[in-house]
Amino acid sequence: ALIQSLLLLPLLLFRTKGSKTRTLGLYLLYCGPFTASAAMEHLYPTLMLLYPTTTFLLLLLHIRNSQELEKQMLRQELELSDSRTRLLLGQIQPHFIFNSLLAIEELCEEDPKKAGRSVHDFAKYLRSNLEALSCNHLIPFEKELEHIRHYLALEQADPSSQFQVVWDLKATDFTVPPLSVQPLVENALKHGYLPGMEIRIAVSVGERISVTVSDTGSGMKTETAAAINAQWQGAHSEALPAFGIGLSYVIRSLHEFFSEDCFFEVQSEEQKGTTFLIEMPKQKGAGYYAENSDH
């Protein structure tokens, strides 16, 4: 039928004397169904071969994409774990341990009860760091607060440290990545300390949960704050920043646990202080924050 249909085309061209439109119309009218049917008869075996081949190729492509996604997730997890290890090693530095033990030694003579509390804070601080080393899930904010309190108590045990702490917690019933707030408090004392400064730790709840760590210390340069904010915008980059392991870990951790549904920003002015802001999602029943909380 296909060959007969093709042979009929020259005959129609001759009979219609060159009228291409009319010839094409007549050809499609009389021969179109036969030509299509014959073509399908010839193409059917080929299509039957292409179907399983295409299915197999799509399956291979899906498997490859899944493997690449799994490798990417594993790489991000290893990078986060490496950042956490670097952070913890940076926190448990010899000079911090040495200063804490010296402060406790002095308290043993001057105020034994206070020395006992400092030993308790020191043990809890070290334990929290070691537990965070193997923690790959969100933790209650109360646990992060406990770690912050132990750290601040150790710093205040040193007579040379003169600063005030203000707590303004409108809610605590939500979860955060481990060591996502404490490094911000530590940053205020390590890099912005001024005698008599104030450190304010606040939590407010609106459409989202806002955690703020602010201080009245020495502040930081405008370009430094801009670099930190820029890193938040491009936190998926594999390059570690040069301005701090602690801040780098906080940014990586927030991205890892909350993806794009989170916000981080630093505002600072030299000799006036620094403010870190974290905004996290508020989802009832998801562990972030219970809307029916009594806080």
Helix and strand layout, with pairings?
Blueprint: H1 2-15, H2 20-91, H3 94-110, H4 112-133, E1 139-140, H5 141-157, E2 163-169, E3 175-176, H6 182-191, E4 197-205, E5 209-215, H7 222-233, H8 245-258, E6 263-269, E7 273-280
Parallel strand pairs: 2-4
Antiparallel strand pairs: 1-3, 4-5, 5-7, 6-7
Describe the global form: elongated
Q: From N to C, what is the helix and strand string?
A: HHHHEHEEHEEHHEE
Question: What structural class results from the helix and strand content?
Answer: alpha+beta
Weakly predicted, low-confidence segments: 1-18, 20-32, 235-242, 285-295
What percent of the residues sit in helical stretches (DSSP H or I)?
Answer: 55-70%
Largest sheet data: 5 strands, mixed
Sheet with the most strands: spatial strand order: 2-4-5-7-6
Strand content: 5-15%
In round numbers, the mean pLDDT is 75
- Rg value: 34 Å
Q: Give the distance, in angstroms, between the N- and C-terminal Cα atoms.
A: 83 Å
So how many helices?
8
Secondary structure: number of strands: 7
